[in-house]
Structure formats: C-alpha cells, structure tokens
Amino acid sequence: MNYVIIGNSTAAVGCIEGIRSVDKAGKITVISKEPHHVYSRPLISYLLYGKTTEQRMKYRPDSFYEDNRVTPVLGTAVTKVDYENKKVVLDNGDEIAFDKLLFATGSSPFVPPMAGLEEVENQFSFMKLDDAAALQKVINKETRVLIVGAGLIGLKCAEGICSKVKQITVVDLAPRILPSILDETGSELVQKHIEKQGVKFILSDSVAQFSKNSAQLKSGGKLDFDVLVVAVGVRPETKLAADIGCKVNKGIVSDIHCATNLDGVYAAGDCSESYDITSGQYRVLALLPNAYMQGEAAGINMAGGEKAYDKAIPMNAIGFFGMHIITAGSYDGEAYVVQTEQTYKKLISKDNLLKGFILIGDVARAGIYTSLIRERTPLDTVDYELIKEKPQLMAFTASERAVKLGGAKE
Known about the structure:
Layout: E1 2-6, H1 10-20, E2 27-32, H2 44-49, H3 54-57, H4 64-67, E3 70-74, E4 78-82, E5 87-90, E6 95-97, E7 100-103, E8 107-109, E9 123-124, H5 129-138, E10 144-148, H6 152-161, E11 167-172, H7 184-195, E12 200-203, E13 207-211, E14 214-217, E15 222-224, E16 227-230, E17 234-236, H8 239-243, E18 265-267, E19 273-276, E20 281-284, H9 288-302, E21 315-320, E22 323-329, E23 334-339, E24 344-350, E25 353-360, H10 366-374, H11 384-389, H12 398-404
Parallel strand pairs: 1-2, 1-7, 2-3, 7-18, 9-16, 10-11, 10-16, 11-12
Antiparallel strand pairs: 4-5, 5-6, 8-17, 13-14, 14-15, 19-20, 21-22, 22-25, 23-24, 24-25
C-alpha cells in the first residue's frame, strides 16, 4: 500500500502514527513545501522570545521519519494531483504514486487588498518557522513594528518580539482583541495585561493607505513604522483538493472517518472541516489537538482500521506574557462567571450539558471542563455546583472516576 500525505505538520504526524498502528509495512511518503522536520507552529513566537530553540520546537524526535519508515520529501511542493492515475506531481517534475492520499495542507495567511501594500519593503507574515527567521533578521532595539491584526497570530508575534524592538503598535478593525475566542470582559482583561508590556492598540480602525514606511489610518491618524506584520487571518489550503473534485466549503469536507467524497482520499487538520459537537455545525477548527486527532483517525481508516473523529470542539490554550488562557466550546447558553483583577472564569451550560468555557489567569484543571464537553456528560449526573467552583474528579461518580483515571473501560 502506498500512502501519500501532502503536508508535514500535526495532522501528518497523527496520520503517520495512525497508519503504523494498523499497517507496519505500507510505504508512507510525506511531501511538504517547508524544508523543516515537523515542528510545533505555536512555538515560533517563543523562538523569537528566546524561550525555545529550533531543536526543542520539533514535534517529534529527529528519528521520527526513520522510526516510522517514512520517506520525507521536504522543501518541495505538490503542483497537481492526478486522481485518475493515482499520482501526485511535484514542482521538480517528479511523480509519486498513491493508493491512499491525505490532504494535510494546512492554511495560508490571508492578506486582504490594502492600498499601497506593495510599497512596503519589510513586510512579513507570522505563521511558519521561516517567517520568524526572516523577521528576526530585520529587527533590532530601534525597530518600530506595526502589526495589522489583533487575533492570536498578531498577538503571539507581539509577544515574541516585544523585548527586541523599540515600539509595537497593533491595529485591528474589530473593537476588541481576540474576538474569535474571548468575550468582551475577557478581551479587556488580556488587553490591559499586554498593554503593561508596552504594546499599543488602535482598535475599531484600519489602514486606508500604506506608503514605504507609514500607514494612513481611516480615522485620519498616521503611523510610522520600520517593519510591518500582516496577521489579519488565515485561509484553508483547499485548491489541490478542489481541483480533483473534492467537495469544499470553507475547508475540505470529510465525514467522521475523515474521508472525502473521493474514494481513497482523506483530509485532516487546518485545511478541513470538522463537526463541532458544541454548536452542531461543520466548520474549520484550526487547532493543534484536533489536527492530531483528525490525522490519527484518517491514518487508521486509510490503513483499513476503524476510527471515528466525532468529538471535535473549538479549543485554544495560549499565553501572553505569563497570562494563561484556555477556551473551549461555544458560548451560547447560561453563564456562570467568577472574576478577579487577574483572573476570569466563564462556564456556559445549555440543555443539561457544559457547552463552553473561558479561563484566564487560573487555568488549573481545565481538562475536567474539556472532558465534560467532549464526552457530553449530563450535568445532573455530576456535582456541577462543586465543579463550577473547584473542578475535580471527586465531583464524578466512582465508576466515572475509574474511567477517567484509566483504571476501567467505559
């Protein structure tokens, strides 16, 4: 059996390990535009910050490909998938045959049309290891940085370079930071914390016109800068899949076995859609844990095993300048809120289920809440009043504790 994986990130690792749990002998080829060993993308800000190294960023040991008998084809792009003849065509002219194919193509930066953007010399994205390396080369203690985008990518960039530059200004059209994962109260708390580090925010505004080293804002203000980082958002890489007839909405559409509408073709990770059990909708969930689980399920099913990917939820675990944040699920329902000057807890329940949560500052035992959401545990079967205040296993029945502690089967 010839397995080909397009992409070399978390979903690809899940797929490799999933395949090898079933098929020890099949040939696995991983193809990636990036030349690097598989690494953890969320750590690129810590690389700039000086908290980690390229070696420590690796998502698996140096021997990972060899140990799993994988042929890595790195620094090479797939230009075309010939589905009829079951082969992929590379940008160097090579062709690789496949019996089963996984799209783990991830996402790419979304750069909206902005007047004068082409005049800006030092402009960067912040999604890949090479982006961080390129940015590192041009910044110094006198550098003024403008970041367009106050989402996860923009703010992680700000954290990574804050101690290395003179000034950081973040501009966003939204009225608050991290609007995709936090409510107003949470956004305000995190913004104040980041501002204490010297980062300046200009919200509910956007750039009307760029010149080489300045940005004219729609509000009338002007910002001078030396380096521009565009972190407005990302888009799933779906073109290769769409070109061969895979069904694509915002991401590649697949079922709970991660199979697309084409026989032998699968999709996993940021390029694909997942069924969000908290909202009941199919959507792109660009999250590392989900990418691994989806990739693993795809690999097992590609190899002839049986594995359902049916517990996907939106989830983020992130930190900024020492302030930790974990969010999960959806926020439609009845809220239980506890707030202090440095911490924030919001639990959302609906229809006797925990649907989502926001934890800022104190994130201890967030796994209890995540488990309640993923397992769709009826709240009347646990001591929810205790869990709301102090998440702990004692709030579960003895039999459920045994399962969660790994000592019994469900």
